[in-house]
Every structure is written in structure tokens, then in C-alpha cells.
Amino acid sequence: MVCKMVILARRREDMSHEECIEYMEEEHAPLVQELPGLRKYQSSVPLNPDEAGFDEMAQLWFDSPEEMNDAFESEAGRRVQEDAENFLDADSALMIPVADETVRVNELD
Fold this sequence. Notes:
InterPro entries: Dimeric_a/b-barrel, EthD_dom. By secondary structure, the chain is an alpha+beta fold.
């Protein structure tokens, strides 16, 4: 079963939204890509972070819940979690493990 971790988080109070996103793209994303078993990594930024209540949404796909757990418990996973504190408010982070299920797909024009 393909699964993913969905993460919603706010920036640290001492950073602007732009500084947070710049750090995430330049420093944090390369660390995330080192997670063992990671199949896909997607980062999304809300169009209006003040209204959304978060600055970044990350989605990390794995082949199984076990591989996802192993990735976060690995040395690379520890580096990712430690680095997140450099730009995100750890208390605000919401981590949601989910299974993907496509209900309906519409063709895009």
C-alpha cells in the first residue's frame, strides 16, 4: 500500500514567510530527498499563508508504512527533523500519515 506523510507547518516567528520558503527550498529539501525509501517529495506553499494558517505543506510518499517509519527513524530522518527547527515552529507542525486512494480523476484541459 502506497502511503504518504502530509506535513503542515508554520514558520518560526523570527522569520518572514519568504525567508522560510527560501530556506526550505535551498537547505531543507535536499536533506528530505536523502530519506531512504522516499518515492516522491512535493512541497506546496499556500497562496495566502496568513489565511491558511500554515507556511508550508510537504507530502512524502513511501511504498509502505514500515518504510515510512524506517525513513523517519534513520540517520537521514533525524537530520531532517533537526533541520526543520531552523525554519519551522515545531509546536505548530501537524504530521498526518495517510494512504492514497484515487476516487475520481478528471482530465485537465
